[in-house]
Amino acid sequence: MDTETWVIVAAAGVLTVVGTLAWWRFADQWADEDKKRFRKRGEGGGGEVRVVKKDGE
Questions:
Q1: How far apart are CA 36 and CA 29, in angstroms?
Q2: What whole-number distance in Å separates Cα of residue 6 and Cα of residue 9?
Q3: Residues 21-50, mean pLDDT to the nearest whole number
Q4: What is the DSSP string of 21-51?
Q5: Which among 9-18, 19-28, 45-54 has the top mean pLDDT?
Q6: What is the pTM of this model?
Q7: How far apart are CA 44 and CA 48, in angstroms?
Q8: What confidence score (pLDDT) does residue 29 get?
Q9: Nearest to 12 by CA among 23, 2, 1, 20
Q10: Which three-class secondary structure state does DSSP give residue 18?
């Protein structure tokens, strides 16, 4: 392959990685509020349990 082909392939790879990372980061903001399929981190669903203690208890 010549140099131009390598540049195009590299640019496509970089754009794919950047696009994927952006999707993972911002997908919950892009989803419609009414039809939201994504759950923000920390809103349950992963089996996590959080205990919040008030002052004085």
A1: 9
A2: 5
A3: 63
A4: HHHHHHHHHHS-STT-----TTSSSSS----
A5: 9-18
A6: 0.46
A7: 6
A8: 65
A9: 20
A10: helix
